[in-house]
Amino acid sequence: MRPGRRILGSEHLAGWVFVLPATVLIVVFGIIPIGWVVLLSLQHNDLLAAPTWAGLSNYRELVHDPEFRDSVRRTIVYTALFVPISVGGALAVALLLHSEIRFNRFYRTAVFVPVATSTVATGILFNWLLDPTYGIANYLLGKVGLGPYGFFQDPDQALYAIVAMTVWGWLGFDVIIYLAALQGIPGDVLEAAALDGAGRWATFRHVVLPLLSPATLFLVVWSTINALQVFDEIYVTTRGGPLQATTVIVYELYNQAFALFHAGYAAAIALVLFLITLVFSVLQLWVGNRRVHYSS
Amino acid sequence: MRRRLLLATALVAALSLAAGCGGGSGGSSGGRVNIVLWHGYVDTEGKAINAAAALFNKTHPKIHITVQNYGNSDYALQKVLTAIRGGSYPDIVYLYGSWAANVARTPHAVDIAPLIKSDPSIHWNDFWPAERQAVTVGDKIIGVPALVDNLALVYNKKLFRQAGIPFPTASWTWDDLRAAAQKLTNPSAKQFGWAYVNDASEDTVWRFDALLWQAGGDILTPDDKHAAFNSPAGVKAATLLQQMATIDHSIYLDSGNDNYANLFNSGKIGMLFTGPWDLSQFPDVDYGVQILPGDQNHQTISGPDQWVMLDNGDARTKAAWTFLKWFTSPTEAMRWSLATGDLPIRASETKLPAYQAYVKRYNGIATFVQNEGNALKARPVLVDYNEISQAMGQAIQAVLLGKAQPKQALDQAAAQVNQVLAQGG
């Protein structure tokens, strides 16, 4: 038998042909664009005229750009608030929903609905809820003698309003993960804890929480990646304002690329964001893996 | 056998993936030139452009035009750039006026200056001055005017009567505006005298431009090398906004989501600086239209958009030019205005019999048409314009929010703009 025929007839070829469509998709829509972004970040490119070689000057400019530095600071503030509030809040809600209470299914659905709602709809809703003059939020707060607040229209409050809105939007997802993890805790472990005389707090602290740690690690890493890349919610509400109070890294990237047509500079921002995300994720996984308990 | 079947299935899947890409609809067949036009029109305008294309195809057997909707016009430039990169792009595309300088940089855009010179039948000078300025980039002309609008004062007649103030006149001053806005404001009813779009975007900036020009100021120095908006005229304009927003609280600050239109329609806002595109959103209000209040003059700002031609070879360029000449001719342009309510793009349209029907059909539109004569200045046509606009937008927003003094905010923005202009792109 000639070697050629063996390859043609082998299962290898069929295998390769089968993965070909997926591979092509990943290469075309994943690998090539990433490579292109790297190239773009080394160019002066306005997407219109022929690009010119920039070397590392985009990166040098980035280091000295106060607007970029501010956007990094805001992104970190946002992440530092969003991750603990959404993950911690989800744990609390999941614990409540895990217990036997009436209308449990209704509550679970209610908590998850925001996740299934489109970001644009959420944005429009919050724009009206938090409108300083006509919004229901200020109306209700006024009833108890608070406010009025500017929310999205006050540079000192807008970022926190975004935190509140995104926590509301994403909480349900985290809750579902926690509920699944809670259901995965074996009953005999809890029984053993009870037999050993552990109270509710001790059981939670020393049995439940450690057994939830794989879910917690996943949620912290996942939420952090999401928070560092927050964009949609800002785009549909404050558009980076007022006075750039909500201009986070990705919004700055968007503005540079698609409003100012500094595509090379924006690509450099994208790569820096990628590195920041990578560092955060590796760090979290490294710390997390030493503390996570995987039940066998 | 079974293996071969598997292989065949996989191949089919891979091939059909490859076949999904590519394609294009322009070209020529049987002596007929096929051209493609991209637009963002929907609803009434969407129907009108389809009707225009059908009429053109019927009356011009040698050319066939296909009109395609590219979605939201806000992102048209990105889409066109992507299409150019992909090597398959339309012959005519609707683009915003503020992109003119960017468009001029792409080698694919047709410079129509020679066409205008060699073909007087376009009657170029019949287009409004602001439209011609907007498509002129250096010695190039990068498009044919597609749409024009301008800002005028739209007011709620009922609220004026309730407050006991006479309707705005053509000789209103800024003081009249401020006083009326104050009287129309009623905090307990959550009613405001005026509204201002305060998202620091171009929507914020162009309304300020009108005030700046009224006070005798300019955005840049005549050579386009330095900022000029921090002049005493600019400070005066910003101070008007500051006083109304932070002292009188007579302005509803719109966060950029166009709530102001709903609020005006529900009688919560007395006056707007807005254009003809908004009028259809006010079915519940008996509104009047007046030219803008003035300081040294009553200038307004005009926002022209254009049809840009992209080069797909001489035959298609010629066909595209034929279409645009026909489509922007006075008769066709008037037909368009009558159907859509858009302003006439040519001065001579106002002399056509159909113009009378148009003015009757769209309440207040006649004032907007006259107001086009008050659009004397244009925004600078520069690649860096968006950066200038963003710097100015931040300054105006800071003033409106009471976070900065007019002079200080404008000086800071001017410093940024000077830096951008010094770098030269």
Q: Which tags fit this structure?
A:
heterodimer, A: about 300 residues, mainly alpha, MetI-like fold, two-stranded antiparallel sheet, 2 strands, globular, B: about 425 residues, alpha/beta, D-Maltodextrin-Binding Protein, domain 2, 2 domains, 6-stranded mixed sheet, 5-stranded mixed sheet, 17 helices
Q: What structural class should be given to the helix and strand makeup of chain B? A: alpha/beta
Count, helices of chain B: 17
> Which strand order do you get reading across the main beta sheet of chain A?
1-2
Summarize the helix and strand pattern of chain B as letters.
HEEHEHEHHHEEEEHHEHHEHEEEHHHHHH
Principal-axes geometry of chain A comes out as globular
* Low-confidence parts of chain A: none
Given the structure, what is the number of helices of chain A? 13
Beta-strand share of residues of chain A? under 5%
Assign a percent range to the helix content of chain B. 40-55%
Structure notes:
The complex is a heterodimer of chains A (296) and B (425). Chain A is mainly alpha-helical and 296 residues long. Chain A has a single domain (62-291), classed as Orthogonal Bundle (MetI-like fold). In chain A, 73% of the residues lie in helices and 1% in strands. Chain A has 13 helices and two strands. Chain A has helices spanning 3-9, 11-40, 57-63, 66-98, 104-116, 119-129, 136-143, 158-183, 187-195, 200-228, 232-235, 249-259, 263-291; strands at residues 43-44, 52-53. A two-stranded antiparallel sheet of chain A has the order 1-2. In chain A, strand 1 (43-44) and strand 2 form a beta hairpin. Chain B has 425 residues and is an alpha/beta fold. Chain B folds into two domains: 15-148 and 303-373, Periplasmic binding protein-like II (D-Maltodextrin-Binding Protein, domain 2, 3-Layer(aba) Sandwich); 152-301 and 384-423, 3-Layer(aba) Sandwich (D-Maltodextrin-Binding Protein, domain 2). Chain B is built from 17 helices and 13 strands. Chain B has helices at 2-19, 43-59, 76-86, 100-105, 113-118, 129-135, 157-163, 174-184, 202-214, 232-248, 259-265, 314-327, 330-340, 353-361, 365-371, 385-400, 406-423, and strands at residues 27-29, 32-39, 63-69, 92-96, 136-137, 140-141, 144-147, 152-156, 192-197, 251-254, 269-274, 287-290, 305-309. In chain B, the strands form three sheets. In chain B, strands 1, 2, 3, 4, 7 and 13 form a six-stranded mixed β-sheet that branches. A five-stranded mixed β-sheet of chain B has the order 10-9-11-8-12. A two-stranded antiparallel ribbon of chain B has the order 5-6. In chain B, helix 2 (43-59) runs antiparallel to helix 13 (330-340), helix 9 (202-214) crosses helix 16 (385-400) and helix 13 (330-340) packs parallel to helix 14 (353-361). At the A-B interface, helix 2 and helix 12 of A face helix 1, helix 4 and helix 16 of B.
